[in-house]
Structures are given as structure tokens and as C-alpha cells.
Amino acid sequence: MTATLITVAPTGAESAKADVPALPVTLDELVVTAKECEREGASVVHVHIRDDAAQPTLDLGRLRATVQALRESTGLIVQLSSGGAVTDPEDDRLAVLEAGPDMASCTMGTVNFGDDVFMNRWQFVVQLHTRMQERGIVPEYEIFDLGHLAALQRLLGRYGLPAGGHVHVDLVMGVPGGMPGTTEALVACVAAMRDLPEGTTFSATGIGRTAVPVLLASLSAGGHLRVGMEDTITYAKDQPVESNAQLVARAAAFGRLAQRPPMTTTEARAMLSIPVTR
Ligand code: KMH
Ligand code: ZN
Questions:
Q1: Which helix (H) or strand (E) holds 173?
Q2: What does the angle CA 16 – CA 211 – CA 105 come to, to the nearest 5 degrees?
Q3: Helices 211-220, 244-257: inter-axial angle, 10-degree rounding
Q4: Of the ligands numbered here, which is closest to the C-alpha atom of 85?
Q5: 255 Cβ contact list (under 8 Å, min separation 6)
Q6: Atom of ligand 1 nearest to the CA of 86
Q7: How many CB atoms lie within 10 A of CB 161?
Q8: Which residues fall within 8 angstroms of residue 160, CB to CB, at 6 or more apart?
Q9: pTM (global) more than 0.90
Q10: Whole-angstrom distance, CA of residue 223 vs CA of residue 225
Q11: Which of 142, 170, 205, 207 to mutate to test the pocket of ligand 1 (most atoms within 8 A of CB)?
Q12: Residue 171 in contact with residue 204, Cβ under 8 Å?
């Protein structure tokens, strides 16, 4: 059995610091969180950043400083969100790539997102994919619905494999408007992934209360895990998440129980085809 890749998504763009005091929003808080999560078994960090007022931002200077600080302080693979917040314009989302991360997210289609819409036009997805190819940035294809996997097959067929040649997808399950966070939905995605290139790997994350069911379903299906306060702010009923490290520790413990201990960052780089130095 393969080890488990654990990605931590510590911040996101949706929760307010005022509502979730444990949310890391400053660079210092992010670096501390990232170090703790690496110690608990994370090997990838999926990064959204905030401005001085703790609001989501795609400011390029801040993104560059964030990539540098995470590289200096951790061995984690740095994955910047190109999704940003639902209000972010396409140009700003594309410009995220100029910060030179190891990886960036690439969402494979538009999806209703609670009361909002997370826009990902086909031509925009193509631009993200091809710019990442040109810059040697490895994408994580974000899948919010079953049809997004068909879109990924179409994308790879028309525009070729990503940088490094390895395809990794992340199933984001349980968003109100996207696929549900259930074992049945995950199994449907696994079946659809048979049409993707051989060796394709996947992780899964369940939003809110679907976090644990999705984690268990993914482990049992041979998948990897994404956890973090971007996706879950309640550890159990009436119990707020204390820290991202708490969520990573739980994922690592489940992985060990399943005979799938956390991957090292070196193993993760090898699996995702990410060079050690950039
Ligand atoms: N914040 C969501 C609108 C990504 O990071 O690529 C989009 C998101 C996906 O979080
Ligand atoms: Zn994100």
C-alpha cells in the first residue's frame, strides 16, 4: 500500500478571522502553522493569503514573500491557490503563477458555491493549464463535480500533460452546489478517473461535516487526503477546530490505522514530479 499524501489548506478565502480566531491570516501565523503541519505529516500546503485587514488578496508581492518564507522555513511543497475568492478577476488569478510556486490549483469548471458562483470558464482553464506548462508549475486539478473530470480528460487530450507529466487531482466534495461529500460520489469519481492517464493520483477533501466520511472513503479507495481550516472549522459536533495541525494529526492517524502512513515531502515530490530545488 502506498503512503498517504497529506495536503493542508490552512486558510482559504471564505472564513473571517473575527469568526474563526485560530485561522492563520498573517504571514507569521501561516509559517508557524505550516511548520506544525509538516511536523504532523503534511507534505503540501495549499495557500490563500490575506491582507493587513485579514481580507483575501492575490497581491503578487505578498504571494512572492509567502512562497519565499514557506520555502525558507519548511520543506513543504508550496501550492498557491489560483482560485482565490469568488470575487477575484481572471487576470489576478492568472498572475498568481508569477509568484513561482511549486504547484498551483486549477479548477476544472464553474460551480455554484453556496450563494455565489465560482467561475471557471473553459478558456480560462485552458490558459491556466498552458501557462503552468510553460512555467514548469505542477497543477492540482480541483474537481468540484463529476463533469469536471470529463473536462480534465478533454483538457489533457487537447493540450497535453502538465509539467512533469504526472496528473494529480483533488476532489473537493460537499460544497453546497457541487458534488456531495459521500462515499458514493467518491466512488463515481474513481470510476471516471479510469479515463485519465495511467498513474493519475487523487486526494479528496470533504467540506464541513463531510470531512471525516470523505477522508475514510478516500483512504479506502487508495486516495490521498487534503484537510485544513479552508474546508473544515468544526472538529466534531460543537467542537471548533483548534488548529490546522490538529486536522493534519487526525488525518495522519487515520492513515496509519489504514496502513497508509503520511508521505515524506521527498516521497511527495517524487510522486508529483516536482523537482527538489527551483
Ligand atoms: N475559494 C474558492 C472560491 C482553489 O483554491 O483553487 C476557490 C478555491 C479553489 O479555494
Ligand atoms: Zn483553495
A1: strand 168-173
A2: 65
A3: 30
A4: 1
A5: 3, 4, 6, 41, 219, 225, 261, 262
A6: 3
A7: 12
A8: 133
A9: yes
A10: 7
A11: 142
A12: yes
Distance CA 150, CA 169 (A): 12
- Give mean pLDDT in consecutive 10-residue pieces for the chain, a chain of 278 residues: 94 98 98 98 98 98 98 98 98 98 98 98 98 98 98 98 98 98 98 97 98 98 98 97 98 98 98 84
| Element (DSSP H or E) covering residue 143 | strand 138-143
Is residue 139 within 8 Å of 195, Cβ to Cβ?
A: no
Shortest-distance ligand to the CA of residue 9: 2
> If we measure between CA atoms, which residue out of 76, 78, 73 comes closest to residue 49?
78
* Mutation test residue for ligand 1: of 117, 118, 125, the one with most atoms within 8 Å of CB: 118
**The one-letter amino acid at 100:** G
Centroid of ligand 1 to alpha carbon of 257 (angstroms): 30
Contacts of 163 (CB under 8 A, 6+ apart): 132, 133, 135, 136, 137, 138, 139, 273
Residue 201 β-bridge partners? 168
> What are 261's strand-pairing partners?
none
Residue with cell 497529506: 6
Residue recorded with cell 464541513: 208
Pocket of ligand 1 (CB under 6 A): 12-13, 81-83, 85-86, 105, 107, 113, 118, 142
- The separation between CA 86 and the C-alpha centre of its own chain, rounded to angstroms, equals 16
The number of the ligand nearest the C-alpha atom of 84 reads 1
| Closest-CA residue to 45 (of 21, 71, 26) | 71
Q: Which residues contact 133 (CB under 8 A, 6 or more apart)?
A: 159, 160, 162, 163
State pLDDT tens for residues 179-221.
999 999 999 999 999 999 999 999 999 999 999 999 999 999 9
